[in-house]
Amino acid sequence: MRHLLSAADLDAGEATALLDTSDRLREALLGREVRKLPTLRGRTVVTMFYENSTRTRVSFEIAGKWMSADTINVSASGSSVSKGESLRDTALTLSSMGADCVVVRHPASGAAHRLAHWGGTGPSAGGAGIDTGGATTGTPTAIVNAGDGTHEHPTQALLDAATLRDRLGGIAGRRIAIVGDVLHSRVARSNVLLLATLGAEVVLVAPPTLLPTGVDTWPCRVSYELDAELPAVDAVMMLRVQAERMHGGFFPSAREYAVRFGLSEDRAALLREGAVVLHPGPMVRGMEIAPAVADAPNSAVLAQVRNGVHVRMAVLYHLLAGAPE
After folding, report:
1. 260 Cβ partners below 8 Å, 6+ apart?
2. Is the peptide bond before 123 cis (omega within 30 degrees of 0)?
3. Within a domain: 262
4. What digits encode the pLDDT tens for the residues 104-151?
5. 294 and 172 both lie in a single domain
6. 79 and 158, same structural domain?
7. For 261-278, how does the pLDDT look when each residue is reduced to its tens digit (9 = 90+)?
């Protein structure tokens, strides 16, 4: 695995291998007074975030540090980006400085794919790098997509799959509902692709105005009636309403959205016993999900956060520690 740009990059075997590695890394850290593994000692991981983030940025930093990598955060506001430097020049600069891996979040869909094309050369010997106009030495810098516009967020899909596997005992044959603002959600797209690859049946539930063009080609089913779907699902994933990406009226009001598509206590009571509630965060309590539902025993929201660190450790391991293909 050279890069992780899309959930579609992974077949069932590769995705399962990442989830298994995540489990082994979690077990390796259990009981350690100092949570450090020497796995990536001498490697340099740069997190480059052009959008605000708490969970993804911090979990990648923790993941790198727990595996003894040198982890550096670059924010757009505190870098030469604020002076007008292009994404390409920033990427080549970081690569030339010796970054083995760049984790990038960017508001433009496809930004991570462009970085993988431009990524320059890393410090490791033994392979050919991207041609930057001169001699190239070392292997290309690995690129991890930490969210590109409304396109994809593959590591979020992996941590969601890890959480579902922990709670349900497996993913194949399970029915998962993804509810809410699918149109603006990179999490939804990556989850549909990955969960379908792992053998789940996925149903999207959203108002027609919050479904993307071409959703009929996705490996999932579409529904507009949440109450009709909840009794038959093994897990329900509520999505954040991304108001910052909305220009115009996608639904009449926050109250009406909550009435039609929010996971209230009454709606949560429709779920079968053992069904799991997920949310990628940050949650808008009272609109997307009732506070009591978010904090209920069948809520896996905090488990998703915990699994995010171990899954991102696994991704860095497979990219940088020479794990078998």
Report:
1. 207, 226, 251
2. no
3. yes
4. 999 999 999 998 987 544 443 333 333 333 333 356 899 999 999 999
5. yes
6. no
7. 999 999 999 999 999 999
Rounded distance, CA 143 to CA 201, Å?
30
Tell whether 120 and 234 lie within a shared domain: no
* Residue 215 to residue 206: CA distance in whole angstroms: 12
Residue 65, marked binder:
no
260 is in an annotated binding site: no
- CA–CA distance, 17 with 6 (Å, rounded to integer): 16
Q: Is 282 annotated as a binding residue?
A: yes
Residue 323 CB coordination number (10 Å): 13
pTM over 0.85: yes
Q: Which residue, 15, 4, 52, 74, is CA-closest to 240?
A: 52
180 labelled as ligand-binding?
no
165 is in an annotated binding site: no
Do 135 and 69 sit in the same domain of this protein? Answer: yes
State the residue range of the domain holding 272. Answer: 154-305
Tell me the C-alpha to C-alpha distance, in Å, between residue 324 and each of 4, 43, 102, 194. 15, 18, 21, 21
55 is in an annotated binding site: yes
